[in-house]
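Support reply, case 0932

Customer input (verbatim):
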Amino acid sequence: MRREASAEMRGNNDSDYVEIGEIPSPKVKHARKVSVLPLVFLIFYEVSGGPFGVEDSVNAAGPLLALAGFLLFPIIWSIPEALITAEMGTMFPENGGYVVWVSSALGPFWGFQQGWMKWLSGVIDNALYPVLFLDYLKSGVPALGDGFPRVVTVLVLTFLLTYMNYRGLEIVGWVAVVLGVFSILPFFVMGFISIPKLKPERWFVMDIHDVDWNLYLNTLFWNLNYWDSVSTLAGEVEDPRGTLPKSLFYALLVVVLGYFIPLLSGTGAIPLNRDMWTDGYFSEVGRMIGGSWLTWWIQAAAALSNMGMFLAEMSSDSFQLLGMAERGMLPEIFAKRSRYGTPVIGIIFSASGVILLSWLSFQEIVAAENFLYCFGMILEFIAFVHLRISAPLVPRPYKIPIGTVGTILMCIPPTILICVVLAFSSFKVMAVSLVAVAIGLVLHPLLKHCEKRRLLRFSTSSYLPDIQSSRSENENLIN
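Our regenerated output:
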């Protein structure tokens, strides 16, 4: 494809565009870029954070289906999503991430809807973590269980973690490494200690007539999605062409092993009591396998893991808003960076959403975010296949080694899974989620009206590739 300047874009007239797939211009260096190891643990916390919360899969379906789910679900869902993220993230190495993918394939209207649903889903998800952090501490500090002290602590904790995001993505990445190692290590220790106590027959317990499919599927889905979240950090990554695919691969291994080994040791080393397998039960499993010292370690790991998940999720959410502003989808104030290179307004908006939504219950949060996330993933799959067909010659530094038919076939199983998850949603969750979707449908034309009337200022960053022009060149070459 020819490398030549495109037509001018709003707000900047003095810079050439770069080709899709190129790294953005060096003139936009705001801070040190994120390397492989911090990115692996940022992905780990965006997707997982450890086995905290997987206990419900045993409660819902028993050991066999729980173990099978955390082996098969990554094949059906996680691997396709990670592969698509690697290809599209290196094709569009900028902070808009999946918003840019959908915009380039389906147009800016659907790109905005993608951004709205994914951002809202992420903020809903992040509202969990300060609350879960206190839930793990309230056994030692009963005053944190409810009332005014709990509310104040949630606000203070949200403020402190938000400030850490403000100080820079590199700091967040290395904090994620430290927290990740601390959170994973007790479960590998527990797995080693449990070996003499394992009874393999306990792994094969299943009663197909006593399965809570809604809880089972939502637990699997919630614990194994959000692989695409790292795409909104692609503009902050050191050499995204090589770093992004490599980091996704390593993170996939860490996540799957981080779920499977604790489940294997927990269900195989102690007698089964399905009713006990609820959130936080791994601390009791640790006590039965290793003693009180392991219980305290697991509880501390769980509490700190929630901090790691909060940091990673807020980074992804806030940089997504920055990326949308750089593409002219949001007012340019959202593209404002702090002296540390972080998106100030995006962080403030994301933190405000977390505080407003922190009153929701755990099950309502998981179900609502899954519902919105499913809609967003459908748009991603459509955009991925569409770009494979309509823009086959656009550079893809990493490309999944399958043809057009292969990409369609790869997207079919996760699409079916999405339909199943949506079908099991309660009426309340469905109604609330559809209202949220409707807000996005109204919000886009409202922002366009504000732009037309010059009530808000919008601009597109000059260092970003001109998607539509590049696609037109590609289509002309094909024709």
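We compared this against your earlier run and they match. Two observations from our side: The CA atoms of residues 338 and 344 lie 6 Å apart. The radius of gyration is 22 Å. Please reopen the case if you see a mismatch on your end.
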